[in-house]
Amino acid sequence: MGSNMAENHPVAFRWPMKAKMNGAKIIHVDPRFTRTSAMADIHAHIRAGSDIAFLGGLVNFVLDHPRWNSEPFFRTWLLEYSNAPFIVSSDFQDAEDRDGVFSGLLEYKGGVTEWPLNGFVGSYDGKSWQYAGTATGATGEPAAQTAKSGETGPSNRPHDAGAAADRGTGDPRRAAPPPGPPFDALVRSLKKPPPRRDPTLQDPRCVFQIVKRHFARYTPEMVERVTGCPKDLFLKVAETLLENSGPDRTSAFVYAVAWTQHTNGPQIIGCAALLQILLGNMGRPGAGIMALRGHASIQGSTDIPTLYHSIHGYLGHPSVLKRHRTLAEYLASETVATGYYANTPKFMVSYLKSMWGDAATKDNGFGYGWHPRILGDHSHLPMFVAMDERRVKGMLLIGQNPATSINARLERRAMGKLEWLVVKDNWVHESATFWKNAPEVKSGAVRPQDIKTEVFFFPSAQVAEEEGSFTNTQRMLQWHFKAAEPPGDCRGDLWFTYQLGKRLKALYASSTAARDEGFQKLLFDYAPAAESERAKGGPDPHRILKEINGFLTADPGQHLKGFGELKDDGSTTCASWIYCGVFPAPDQNLAARKQPDPPGQEGGQLQWGWAWPANRRIMYNRASADLQGRPWSERKKWVWWDGSTWTGKDTPDFAITRSPSAKADPNGIGMDALSGTEPFIMKTDGRGWLFVPTGLVDGPLPTHYEPAESPVKNPLYKQQSSPVLKYWKHEGNSLAGTGDPAFPHVITTYRLTEHYLAGAMSRWNPWLTELQPELFVEISPELAAAQGIRNLDFVRITSPRASVRAKALVTRRLRPFVIDGKTVHQVGMPWHWGYEGVVTGDVVNELTALVADPNVSIHEGKSFVCRVEKA
Amino acid sequence: MNAEMLPSTLFSAAPHWKWLIIWYFFIGGLAGGTFFLAALLDLVGDVRDRALARLGYLIAFPAVLVCGLLLIVDLGRPSRFWHMLIQSNTGWPMFKAYSPMSLGAWALLVFGFFAFLAFLAALGDRGRAGGRWRIRLRPPGALGALVAVGGGIGGLFLSGYTGLLLAATNRPIWSDTTLLGVSFLISAASTSSALLIVLGRRLGGVYALRRLARFEVIVMVLELIALVALVVSLGPLARAWLSVWGVLLVVGVAGLGILVPLVLHWRGGWRAAVAGGVLVLVGGFLFRVVIVLSSEHLGRTI
Amino acid sequence: MAEPMGFFTDTSICIGCKACEVACKEWNQLPAANGGVTTLSGDSYDNTRQLDGLHWRHVRFVEQFAEDRKDGRWLLMSDVCKHCVRAGCMEVCPTGAIIRTEFDTVVIQSDTCNGCRDCIAACPFGVIGMNPVSDTAQKCTLCYDRLKVGLEPACAKACPTDSIQFGTIRELKERAAARVTQLDRQGVKGAYLYGADDRMLGGLNSFFLLMDRPEVYGLPANPQMPSRTLRAGALWTTLTAVVVGLAGVFSFRQRGHREPDEDRP
Ligand SMILES: Nc1nc2c(c(=O)[nH]1)N[C@H]1C(S)=C(S)[C@@H](COP(=O)(O)OP(=O)(O)OC[C@H]3O[C@@H](n4cnc5c(=O)[nH]c(N)nc54)[C@H](O)[C@@H]3O)O[C@H]1N2
Ligand SMILES: Nc1nc2c(c(=O)[nH]1)N[C@H]1C(S)=C(S)[C@@H](COP(=O)(O)OP(=O)(O)OC[C@H]3O[C@@H](n4cnc5c(=O)[nH]c(N)nc54)[C@H](O)[C@@H]3O)O[C@H]1N2
Ligand code: SF4
Ligand code: SF4
Ligand code: SF4
Ligand code: SF4
Ligand code: SF4
Ligand SMILES: [Mo]
Fold first, then answer.
1. Parallel, antiparallel, or unpaired for β A253-255 and A289-291?
2. B residues 201-240 lying closer than 8 A (beta carbon) to C
3. Does the model's pTM come out above 0.90?
4. CB contact under 8 A, C137 and B270
């Protein structure tokens, strides 16, 4: 659900197919019948943008089901492994009771004048969402657990305009946090009283009762009304799922961008998490929620982030908008006292040591003051708005093709306002030639001489021409070796970045500006030991891996073997705590291992590559054992307590000697605060969260909202779409109103196996272009008949942003939906085409809008509206 | 068409044998047929037939040369035409008795050889200097008889094997009947005698021409029967001819190419005979067009 | 001779990713049709349409949906040369370019083939086509060059779901039979093997598990050898030759009989 795995992750789909051959059932929930659906036992079709209604229906089904209510397995999970018994603040009011809005909704007034681009159309004060008696404002949120927009709750958000550097003074009522190192006192000062609980689950304010009430209206009938999926089909899915969950069986959810590219993406995923916790499908083999990642090593690029709002290992990025002026303040706002994240000071200090080495001392807060801080939302969409407003002068475009990206016309216009643009790519793609070949230039609407951007093109080497590592979907690092020299003058990205850094450092060496001090002090020495290698000008990838893995500051030859060794006093240096242990000794690069488990004894495949954290293949795997630490069943045995330690087929995800009978220390911090039965150790309470008291900015419970653009009114609430979604009101970015008759059709965009994203990696390859040569729009025969369209006719697709042309592919794999009694037609378009390459076609992303989810700023490319007519 | 009733031959691919091959079939039929008729006239006719027979030999050899050329040009790699006769890797002769194409290649060579001899003889008949020995390459006389019999059989083979060549495939129509050889052979005979009639008229050999005309009538009747049998033998696939091809077959081949000439023969008169001959030639050509192209366009239906 | 080798293609687990098509092209350096600039076929996701000299693997997409969508499936199948034990292409080839290898596979030797195209017409499955680069007839070689050095064929290697399985025919047949039983036990109706037994052209060394009638996948239900028409055809033709000969003798044998030299036949 939420992914078209067979088409987009065909190699990984090998495993679902193996499972199927062994009798597993595959269910595919997708608006279209795809190649994944073709392999599925059940294909349930839902209208794009209605996943929460479907998942909510499943939650409701489970909660009502006699088997779920009677089986001890589910009861244990609910009482002991989830936060169901916890009592929520009496200030909390559910969206059910307020027509789709949770308590705490405010007008958005955050941000700084220098960066008025955070896009929120509203914002929540999440104080009332917290556990009763623990609500101390939005501070102490484990920011690492959700990729937030960079802001905390409004209580400490600056409302006045002023110089960015002075931001973050925050709530004056708060005292300065205790200094460190050691930071134990600081962590302890963050301790909140443990939440109250009701083991009978009867208290109307306990999480369980709130969840039950919240989903009570998500009946099968309602599912049909909202999603268009017939009730019977929905029930078949629900029954299959529940049947396949329990001590002996597990079910897994697999998603990708069909769940993320919405204005409420994280809530969809959250809803699946809620369901999986109810079903006991977490931390166990064959269970969980699998996020299929996109680009090769995109997982790596969020771990070692190119994300704007986090630094290594999902630590929050120092921000002007938060109370982040000093290291202690940063730690106080980013650390939680209980659970594993109580170790945040160790992670952060070791990271700062990796940045500034010896210059980072206890006395200068380990150089924290040199660290850049963000101003607000610097993700893709607002950056292009900023560019269009000439707030951004130059751009280094390394491996991206925004000329065909969301609201492509707007993004191209924005690029045309840059002073300079560096494109480093394997191909001269649309973003490198937008100034001369874009449709608006060809049509004469824009003249190349009016675009003042100076464009530089650097031919890039391919992955196989470099040594390095990939981190893929299952958080696994795999080392790859250089297979060939790059042709001509092509250079690898490592070479480029290293050279750029070195040259910039030389440029800034003599600067006396205070703001440049951090850059001057930044360690940037990755030169290879061998002179012959050094002459080539590139860095030694092993030296980079070593910095990421970490070592003893005093003895750099001693690599760290795991993040358990990290210290908050500067004695350890480690860029990324989650990667700590991948390179435990100078001659042991565990990412390069390729040793499968012996046939017949397949377990965690622990000798194949290395998975963060700690080479753990299934997170929270303490949950694969019962309260006493025994496997739930022989069939689903994974990790267990052998009387003295946790052991099993995987690296246990628990304090290794903490017995199942260990009691939580009410005064303890970190792991001591959790009992031996609380498996979700990254959570403050060790529990799987059905109700999310902190961390999400758009509500503690998943709630069905319509997409920002929809032809139908929200059948569940008066609130049409997320009250806090992000929308950038900007020229060329208008949205259609609900039910606008000019745009009656729902459209979704997606990928084909035969092509890759913006197309540079496939539309330049004739072997692939002959497989899918032309842009098309998939249309049901019903819509085709209504619009007088025949197969292969040219069709015009128009959204409030633009209009594109494509050939019609009329197929029964698509179908109309009946939503709330009204027929809604949905079409779909792959978005791989552009105006460069062996084959070309219109840019589908000209249709999409800059509108995004408030937690992670992902666009809503999966559901918007258009009009389809014969061209 | 409903998938259930699809004959298995519809799943093969077309070899793209088109105009070159159609011309080859047509001219090959004429080469074989004219030689055969010439040889027969030489062997069983009398001296009044010699001029017409000579015409046959004169046509046969150039025609067979053209055939060879057409075939070679039609190859993907014309320079490798000899691979049909000699194994390119061992140098041994390449011969496959069960492959009509292999047989045909050899037949063309062997027949070409006889046709060449007879051609020499026919040239010699003009009485040019040094031509006398060549006369012996034509009957009467043992050597001449050998050439005539060998070439005659070769000629018949050449006119008929092309049908078998088409049939020994998995193409729709072609391989759905065993009667293509029959039709091709008969058509070769009728077109050849028509050609001799048309061209022989100028030679003034009325006596021989009359008997050729009789032969022509017999053969055309046979041809009509064979055509009907062919259609019947195709069974359900004959429906493929419920198309422009069928129209061409009925109007062009059967009507113009057989029935009208028959009527013309019955009416009599030289003009009619020549006109009939031309029509037979056109009909024979159309027949090959229909057979070859109607199949080329079938198959790979899904 | 090594043990007969071949493919078992299990269409029930083909995801239509076309990796096999591309892997084949890459290994065999086959160019794309028209430099890759082709047009949308409009027939599901199949834009290469057929097996031919440039496409030695071809993935077929068959959409079967009831109008009300109550019933629906999308059959996906990767097609290839069947490496018939009794191979029609090989039977007719006049140059001997088509050989049977030590792996019991059927290979066209490109340096011998002269492009007469008889094999194209002879193959009951429409497998062969002309390659415009070499101007010879070409088709899957079952990666003869890879087999000779102990490598698995490129397409099978690339197939992510093992829909294409390579191995000895003996083992593949066992696996295939087991798979049919397995599917049957899982309640999947209609799965059967195509070409696995020797009734079809002596056996196909590349056989398939299909979910619907062969025609649905573009396969003949009853493939035959081209020579099936030879015996009868030759007989009829010879008879005809005799008849025509007799007609000739009858018409021409008029020695001594005088005809008036009329100017009419
Ligand atoms: N061949 C190939 N593989 C790829 C890529 C590629 O371009 N080509 N891209 C890679 C990248 S970067 C990524 S992020 C992943 C993405 O992998 P996926 O998320 O699988 O990619 P999409 O094809 O965008 O969308 C998947 C499906 O979402 C369905 N869909 C649309 N709207 C909704 C909805 O509201 N709900 C639900 N449940 N389904 C919906 C679409 O019909 C589509 O079938 O793929 C990666 N793999
Ligand atoms: N409407 C709509 N829009 C979408 C999506 C959608 O589903 N619908 N999906 C979104 C998603 S999930 C993604 S990930 C984005 C992707 O959008 P982009 O990242 O913009 O698209 P790509 O085509 O993958 O661009 C990657 C570029 O990197 C180049 N490249 C490859 N290897 C290297 C290398 O080693 N070094 C360098 N320097 N360059 C290299 C490639 O040639 C290519 O040009 O698109 C998003 N846009
Ligand atoms: S393109 Fe690469 S990463 Fe994607 S499925 Fe294929 S092999 Fe895997
Ligand atoms: S399938 Fe066709 S090409 Fe392949 S061996 Fe059989 S007859 Fe020859
Ligand atoms: S085209 Fe080549 S391989 Fe095919 S029959 Fe002719 S010579 Fe043989
Ligand atoms: S076996 Fe080799 S030649 Fe045949 S289809 Fe597979 S990759 Fe292509
Ligand atoms: S590679 Fe395998 S799964 Fe993909 S299309 Fe080919 S046979 Fe099917
Ligand atoms: Mo992605």
1. parallel
2. 206-207, 209-215, 218-219, 222, 226
3. yes
4. no
